[in-house]
Amino acid sequence: MVKTTPRAYGGVAAEERRARRRAALLDAALDLLAEEGAQAVTKRAVCHRAQLNDRYFYEQFTDRDALLTALSEELTNQGIAAVIAATHAAPPDLHSQVHAAADAALGFLLADPRRQALLLNAHSTAALYTARVATQHAIATAATAVNRELRPEQTGDPEEAALAAYTLVSGTLELVAAWLRGEFGTSREQLTGHIARQLLLAPVTDPAR
Fold first, then answer.
1. pLDDT tens across 59-75, in order?
2. For residues 116 and 182, is the Cβ–Cβ distance under 8 A?
3. Exposed end of the chain (fewer CB within 10 Å): N or C?
């Protein structure tokens, strides 16, 4: 049996076209979610906004919930990558690295207000609520890993570290959401400094040891 290679159209390979369609569908869903809420994110509306045929929706996702879950995972991964990159690019002292991480996290949300709608405010459906919890766990896991990298001398109970990281991440996300709603009059610089200080004060060792 002879294997066939997917044809390229207009110089664009099949896998790249598929990736572009996926990106277009995710972007359309994010648009609709930010503009009108979760109820506006339907297969028909997403395909219309992305200017794609229905069959391309099912090429990527089984249903709307799968689309929303994929969108949340995509943005979460992008945000984590931005924070890690900023941490590594900062001066080598711990304070500068932690401050850079906090600033990058806040900057990621401010760079595109649509991200706020998904990562901070969207939990009106079961899929979005589950995705939000998954986001918090993913960020907490990444934060724990970065903390180990920045403070290799620290040792302690992994479960205690995981609890501390999740508490800090979930609380920080709620704080940022409240700040974006105008509930606090602090500047971005003040908020970044506060978050950085909380990260530096967070327990990283087992107090019983």
1. 999 999 999 999 999 99
2. no
3. N
